[in-house]
Amino acid sequence: MPNRAPEKWGMLQVYTGNGKGKTTAALGTALRAFAKGKHVAIVYFDKGGTHYSERGLLDWLKEQSFPGGGSFTYLATGLDRIDPESGRFRFGVTDEDRREADRGVAAAKTFLVDGYDVVVLDEFISSLGLEMISEADGRAVIDSKPKNVECICTGRNAPAWLIEKADLVTDMTIVKHYFYHGEAARDGLDY
After folding, report:
1. 146 near 118, Cβ under 8 Å?
2. Are 62 and 42 in contact (CB under 8 A)?
3. Residue 49 zone, left/alpha/beta (φ > 0; ψ -120 to 50; rest)
C-alpha cells in the first residue's frame, strides 16, 4: 500500500442551499470524526425546543468514549419556534432570539479554542441571514478558528464572504420535496 500524505485538519466546510440535508451531512461528519477518536462539539443556533430527535442520541454519546479517546458535546441555543398547541412555526426575530444567538456565538468561540478537533455550527448561516448574528460577529467567530480545527457551518443563503473563506462548499438543491406537495415534516426523519 502506498504511503499516504498526512491528513490535513483545519478546513472550513459550508453546507448551504434550500435543499434538505445540511444538518444531516454535518452530523454524519461529526459522528465519523468521533468514531475515529476525535473531539467534537456542536453549537445549534436557533434550534431550541426538545423535538429534535437526534438529541437523545447525542446526550448518550456525550457519556461514551471510544478507544481513541474522543469526546462529544453540544449546546442548543434559540427559542422553540414550534407552538406546542398549534404545531405552527413562528417566523420573525425577537430580541430574545438575538440573545440566544449571542449565547451560541460565545459557545462557538469557546469550542473553537478549547481543543476540539471538529466544531459544527449548525444554522449559523441562517442566523447570519436573519441578522440574529451580525456580519462582524460572524466573521469574528470564523476568524477565531485555529488552523488545526475543522469547522462545519450549515444554513441557507451562505454569504459571499463565508463562501470565499471556505475550503469546501456544498449547495443542497431542491429537485423535488414532499413538503411542497402538502406533506408535513416527519418525526425521526426530518427533525
Report:
1. no
2. no
3. left
β-strands 12-16, 168-171: how paired? parallel
**Which segments of 17-138 are extended strands (E)?**
39-44, 71-76, 118-122
Q: How many CA atoms, within 13 angstroms, populate the side-chain half-sphere of residue 143?
A: 7
Q: Per-residue pLDDT tens for 36-79? A: 899 999 999 988 877 777 888 888 888 876 677 889 999 999 98
pTM of the model: 0.87
- Specify the residue for cell string 442551499: 17
Q: Three-state DSSP class for 26?
A: helix
